[in-house]
Amino acid sequence: MSGAKARDGTHRRVIVLGATGAFGRHVCAAAGAAGEEVLRVARRPGTATGAGRFFPMDLIGAGPDGLARLIDAERPYAVVNAAGAVWLCSPEAMRQANHALVDTVLAAMAAASWRPRLVHVGSVHEYAPQPPGTSLDERTPTRPTTLYGRTKLQGTEAVLKASAAGQVEAVVLRVSNAIGAGTSPGSLLGRVAAQLRAAEADREAVVRVSPLRASRDFVDARDAADAVLAAAALPVGGELINIGRGEAVPVRTMVERLITASGQRARIVEEAEPGARAATGQDWMRVETSRARRLLHWTVRHSIDSSARDLWEATAPGAEPSPQDHPAATPVPPGPETADHRPRGGSTRTTRTWPPQTRPVQQPE
Prior knowledge:
The protein has helices spanning 24-33, 59-62, 65-74, 91-111, 147-164, 188-198, 221-233, 251-262, 290-296, 304-314, and strands at residues 13-17, 37-42, 53-56, 78-81, 117-123, 169-175, 177-179, 205-209, 215-216, 218-220, 240-243, 249-250, 266-271, 349-354. The chain is α/β, with parallel strands linked by helices. It is globular and about 60 Å long. Mean pLDDT is 85; it is low at 324-350 and 356-365.
């Protein structure tokens, strides 16, 4: 592969950890489209296609030596940590993927003689929930209320500590709810897409979800991947930067846009399970993105309709299947700490038909 050239004439190489995961795929695609040489690292190659060499590596099991040797041999200008776990995995697997793996990456980069920049993909779920109408910025207190948020915060804190100590040059991007092709089947939108695909042809689909009360900041995974490349190239070492749409979109709107993208008639059935917890401040999320605009010269390019179409088209028969969030993850039934849309409140059932019968079904572009 030719690759883009750095000032010294060498190829612009980037190592992507978790390259076959839901978000890592998008980072690899963005880097390849930019003409960079992509070195994909994961435990297994999976089914993801695209430019770049693949290096099988179990970062947790093998320790830091293998990654340190790879960094010294390939001399990338950046290492992107897009590995992690969020949906339907055991607590221990989540701790390993979101915290222990980060410690391994930091040890490898400290041991290597070559010094690339580390771009660590964090999460806005590391912040404390905020009241409706407010925005999460980089000064928002970090008091996550889920195991996912806590383990991601531990990883982020380790990166920032190592950066402050001069052990690694790093930047952390706290990304909001990234959606698009490869969205996990364990997520709300992944489950909705699966139900729509399972519906019989020419029959109204029944989409069963927990009550759609929340509003979330949804960012297209392709836009978030562009932010990763900007963070790898620009002088932002030591920074913590939020990445999101900057808008709180009702979850119901995203479900309806996905149904529209499918071109199917569907009936939404909302069901709250007995004993589910009451609504909390987690029902609202909007991300302040002014620092990303200022430091990365970045803003979103894709609409939520485009994100919904990208997600839907990727679930077509014959398309690449969505990856597991982490190969070590052990599927378990969703627990009370599993984000984002577990049933809350008393036992209720609401049925709606989408699209409304007075509106034509919009076919995907």
